[in-house]
Amino acid sequence: MNSELRIVRVANFVTPVSGGLRTALRHLGAGYLAAGHQPVLVVPGPRRSDEWTEQGRVITLPGPRVPGSGGYRVLRDRRQLAAVLAELAPDRLEVSDRTTLRWTGAWAGAHGVRSMMVSHESATGVLGTWGLPRPAARGLADRLNSRTAQAYDTVLCTTAWAAEEFERIGADNLAQAPLGVDLTTMHPARHDPALRARLADPHQVLLVMCSRLSGEKRPERALQALAELRRHHRVPAVLAVAGTGPLRRRLERQATELRLPVTFLGHLAERTDVAALLATADAAIAPGPVETFGLAALETLACGTPVAVSRSSALPRVVGRAGLAAADTGPGFADAIRELLDRPEAERRAAARARAERFSWDAAVTAFLAAHHATVPAPAAHHATVPAPAAHHLAP
Questions:
Q1: Does 133 map to a domain?
Q2: 195 and 127, same domain (yes or no)
Q3: 121 or 19: whose pLDDT is higher?
Q4: 137 vs 160: CA distance, rounded Å
Q5: For residues 216 and 18, which has the higher predicted lDDT (pLDDT)?
Q6: pLDDT tens digits, 119-167
Q7: How does pLDDT run across 83-97, given as a tens digit for each residue?
Q8: Do 365 and 351 share a structural domain?
Q9: CA distances from 140 to 46, 124, 164, 238, 366 (A)
């Protein structure tokens, strides 16, 4: 096992306002760097750049926008990316895109580089959200996943739920490693009374959804749940939505037409603003049915706020009893929220925080490096310190 490795990570579908993947890449890169390795991240963008950051070196290559994706870009120029990889001469290659970047597995094999693909989504689930019947989605996913497993030395999944579709095809090169959560930034002490006063009246229940507003995330179910809570459960709930994406205008129109009290906050660039919102809410909704880990849901728990999650995703196993699995309908999420709110507040908030404390980035980095057959740092105690109150920039 080499003591110091150049770990080149390549990812598509990353934008300045994308959420979970961008957060995971940043924390893993910083962890690799702290462990004594040389992380390099290659991502698409509007123009070429090369900079040193807290997660190591970040190279941006020009890549076209994906139509209708709300800003996602891809590394389409294979010759350019192959030239950059050859120049970087990686010891390890880590890829976060099992479709358009699958060819990099063959490149790594031809250059004697150990490779790993990180599965950030369920292929079966994503194909299902595109309208394919389940048998057809499953068959196509099996073929795609088989090619992926053959292309890389290791396929890493962040949950057992995500690994199931590779186990189904008999892939024998699987590794599993959880992601983590920033337990210092995401903390119940971020609760902000002034923010709450801007978003909800004293007698109202403040719900939050922190999600990319795109089809596979099913954000409309949060609005449907809000309508159900107000009209049938008689819960005086309001909803704050953090995030942006191609469905934002449609959701805004829907909220107006249904006369629902929804505040669209857009993308929150400051992590402390995200933490303040999550810690101030009474409960959260995570409606995405194809989430394989769900960093936003875990960050919500770290802030002491319970979350209702899609029963079709990996999230029920991640949140445990700190949240509730909901049927994939507006009324289903309304029922789950109602049940969460029926729990004593102190009890539900303590359970949420305790669950999140089981997932640290130190542990995630160690597991990812082990999957890379790389030297891992000595175990270090994680100190979940209470942050001092910070100024917040949110505005409805």
A1: yes
A2: no
A3: 121
A4: 20
A5: 216
A6: 877 777 777 767 788 888 889 889 999 999 999 999 999 988 889 999 9
A7: 999 999 999 999 998
A8: no
A9: 32, 8, 15, 40, 33
Domain check: are 138 and 194 in the same one?
no
Q: Mean per-residue pLDDT for 307-336?
A: 95
Count of C-beta atoms within a 10 Å radius of residue 14: 21
Residue identified by tokens 């020009």 is: 62
C-alpha closest to that of 6 among 113, 112, 106: 113
Whether pTM > 0.70 for this model: the answer is yes
In a domain, 162, yes or no: yes
Based on the structure, what is the number of domains in the chain? 2
Domain residues for the domain of 345 are: 188-356
270: left (phi over 0), alpha (psi -120 to 50) or beta: beta
Residue 372 in contact with residue 116, Cβ under 8 Å? yes
List the CATH number of the domain containing 335.
Answer: 3.40.50.2000
Long-range Cβ contacts of 153-156 (<8 Å, 24+ apart): 153/108, 153/114, 153/115, 153/116, 154/114, 154/115, 154/116, 154/117, 154/371, 154/372, 155/116, 155/117, 155/119, 156/116, 156/117, 156/118, 156/119, 156/368, 156/371
Tokens 């890829």: give the residue. Answer: 95
126 shares a domain with 41? yes
Same domain, 168 and 202: no
Domain annotation covers residue 382: no
Q: How far apart are CA 180 and CA 299, in angstroms?
A: 9
Pairing of strands 49-53, 56-62: antiparallel
Q: What span, in angstroms and rounded, lies between the C-alpha atoms of 60 and 17?
A: 15
Is residue 270 domain-shared with residue 366, that is, in the same domain? no
CA atoms within 13 A on the CB side of 235: 23
Query: Average pLDDT of 196-218?
Result: 95
The DSSP-derived string for 36-103 is T-EEEEEEEESS-EEEEETTEEEEEEE-PBPTTSSS-B----HHHHHHHHHHH--SEEEEE-SSTTTH
For residue 290, what are the contacts with CB-CB under 8 A and spacing of at least 6? Answer: 121, 122, 125, 126, 128, 129, 216, 312, 313
Tokens of 134: 């389940």
